[in-house]
Each structure stands twice: as C-alpha cells, then as structure tokens.
Amino acid sequence: MRHSILHSTALLVFGAFAQAQTVDSPRVNAELLRHYQALVRIDTTDPPGNETKAVEYMRQVLEAEGIPVIVTAKDPARANLIARIKGNGSKRPILLLGHTDTVKVDPSKWSFPPFSATRDGGYIYGRGTLDNKWQVAAGMMTMLLLKRGNVALDRDVIFAAEAGEEASTGPGIEHLVAQNWNDIDAEACLAESGSVVRTNGRDRYALVQTGEKLPNGARLVAHGPSGHGSRPMRTSAILHLSEAVEKVALWDPPMRFNDTTRTYFEKIANVSSPEDAARYKALFDPAKSPASREYLAENSPIEYSMLHTSISPNIFQAGYQVNVIPSEAQATLDVRALPDEDMPAFIELMRKVINDPTVEIVPQTTNQRPGAAPSRIDNAAYHALESAYSKVYSVPTIPFMQTSASDMAFLRAKGVQCYGIGAMTDIEDAPKGFGAHSDQERILVDAVYKHLQFFWEAVTAIAASNK
Ligand SMILES: [Zn+2]
Fold first, then answer.
1. Ligand 1 centre and the CA of 39: distance in Å?
2. Closest CA to 331 of 250, 214, 222, 253
3. How far, in Å, from the CA of 131 to the mean position of ligand 1?
4. Which of 182, 234, 315, 368 has a CA between 20 and 30 Å from the CA of residue 461?
5. Contact between 215 and 370 (Cβ < 8 Å)
6. What is d(CA 195, CA 427) in angstroms, rounded to the nearest whole number?
7. Which sign, positive or negative, has the C-alpha torsion 93, 96, 100, 102?
8. Residue 250 Cα, ligand 1 centroid: separation in angstroms?
9. What is the pLDDT of residues 19-43, one digit of tens each?
10. What's the whole-model pTM score?
11. Is the torsion defined by CA of 456, 458, 461, 463 positive or negative?
C-alpha cells in the first residue's frame, strides 16, 4: 500500500492555460509532509491553545507565494487564519476549514514524544496528527497548488484555520462567524468529522458528516420527606430518582429518519455482513424494527443514537450523611436531540415515561448551540465528494449524522452546506489505542498524501471552471 500512489497516473489539466499538475507526485508529497510535520511540531495544546504560532507558520508559507492572508483574533495568542484565492465570481465561494488546536497530552504515556511528528512504520505519530492537522496541511497545500497552477475558478476558494475547536468555541468559530463573516461566507464548507474507513488494510467506504445532533440537557429533581436512616421510607427522593433514571435510560424514544440517516442505514447495509445488513434493513420494517433497535442499543450505541433523541444520565447527586434520608436527589441528563426535535414535546413524553409526580424535569436553557437542518445530499457539492472518493479511494460515500457536536453547527445555522470529511483510518486502530485524542495518536503517511489528492479532486470539481 505504501508506495501505490506513486504509481498512479492522475494528470490533471485545467483552464485556458492548459496548466498540467501532478498532485500525487513525490515532490508534492514531500512538500506536503514537510508542512504537515512542521505543524504537528508546533505545540497548540488547548487549553491554552497558542494557535498563533501555527498561524504565523502558515502566514509565511502562503504570503511567500503571493496568497493574501487575514489573521484575526479575539485573543492575540489564539489567532485564526483566512486565505482566499479568487474565482470569477459566477458561483458562491467554497470554504475549507480545519482547526489548529489539539487536546492535551500526558507526555509520560507516549512512546514517541507527542510533538515530534516521528515517522515510523508507515505512520506519523503525534498529537494532532489525526485531529486535525492533516486537514490544515492539506487545505494550505491545496491553496498553494491552485495558485501555482493559476487554476481558473468559478468560485473563490477560502481556507480557514481556526483556533479553539477542542475546548472553547469563543476564540475560533464563534469569533469568525461574528467578526469575519464576510471573509468566510460560502455556499459549501468542507471540515472535519468524516473518515475513509479501512478494515484489514482495505478501503471500504467514506463517511461524510452531513448533520449533527443538538446537545441539550435536563435535570431530574426528586423530592421527598427527609428522615432517619434507620427507618427506610418508600417516599425516599433517592429511590424515586433511581426509578426515574432507570426508566428514561432504558426508554426507546420514538425513532425518526431524516435524509441523511435513511441513506446511512440503506447504504451501510450494502457494505456489511449479511447478518448486520438484515438488521439494518429491519429498521425500515415496523414489525422487525424494535428487535433491531435493541440490538443496536447493546452493540452499536452510535447508530442507536442516530435514530432518535437520546438520553444519558451522567451526574447523580444526593445525600450528605449516612443516617440521614435526604429530601432531594438530582440527576443530570445529557440529552442529544435530533436536529428537528420539538424539545418541549419531548420533555412531555419523558414526563409520561417517568410517570411520577415527585420527580420534576428541569430543562437546560443555557449553553445552547444553534440547531440546523442536515446539509443536502443531492447537490453538486455532495456529488463532487462522492466522485472524488470514488476516484481516489474507489469507495462508496455514505452520509452520517454525528451524535456529538462539531463547529459546523455554527456555519449550518448561517445557511452554509457543510460536509465533514476525514482521513483514511484503519477501523482496528482506535480500539488498540491509536485514535484521535489517544496517547499514541497516529496517521498513515499514505492517508496524508491521499487526502491531498482527494481535496484536489473535490475542490476543483466544485470550484474550477471547465470541470
Ligand atoms: Zn478535531
């Protein structure tokens, strides 16, 4: 696998000047890898971030080739970078978004130092190798190649490297949307969250994030008389809270598909074992669906969560002394809503499921992120991604709804059609401790190279004239 792309013969010809460029040449790959390793070696652990160091590196690289750069920051140490290559304006821009910050490290746990970007056995190791510096490097490199090739574009191509994705959206995406909207406003956006899934070293399918659930929350508060611990009472707040938590946690909330999840379950069946395929197909059969959902609840929590608004009880608080029956007990629930959920109606349903007047439901009203409908899977941008995945990896594309939150929510809320794409990864790698946020975060060197080819195919299909 390692050298296979060097033998491919993708020759790409564009524009009135018939500029020819080979994106998968050893020279381009070496340059990409150099920038990528340089970015991984810049410690942008968030908190505190210090993303400005990565921005300064990219600013110099881009400006040296005549690409104008905007550096914009809420906090001077946490800058964001925006670069733009102009098209003829006949279509609205496309935005390539990546984040420069990473999660924290415990250096004592790493075999290779976390900011060394060590190359070993076909991998690059380091914090941020998967999340998300491959995307930042590939985005920047795409800009350099578009500029050098003088590629004729129908739309502007914007590259934005944002701060603060991992720990706080204030200095990053929220700052960009509030202060630099005109600089990043686009018809479509490519950001993180997807992947190209490999098993047993073989590319299987590409997952593209086209929507996400909306973080919500609620507290259950049970009330009852307090008393002496030597005289147990059936009215105990802790007892009532426990029963309520068990009911909502084991509840199978109403299932509902949207375009993304319907297509996901239809297509994932095509790349699954016969037994799994039958279970996915059964979701569409009202008679067989409950058993299938129960299987997913036990064996595939992510897919089960894609089917409905989900509830996870994550904090339990009650009591202060062993011989005192407390008068109040609380549980905090992580509720992840379908994009179109009617939350007041959902809370009413929860109330019926709990069916206990001593247990109050207090919906969370602070810290709300903007909700938005999933991006379309029938437009030119999505079809361009399908074609690029087919051409570069020979795999089908499957859309999915992320159960957690991403920065794309802020862009979708402004009407941008956003697609979460990702690096090629072995599905076996994360359970072995090599995934994003792990102590051995790593990426296949081939995945870095192939992602640039993918970016090039997708971006030119979406933006180049005469394509
Ligand atoms: Zn990330």
1. 15
2. 222
3. 4
4. 182
5. no
6. 10
7. positive
8. 31
9. 445 788 999 999 999 999 999 999 9
10. 0.92
11. negative
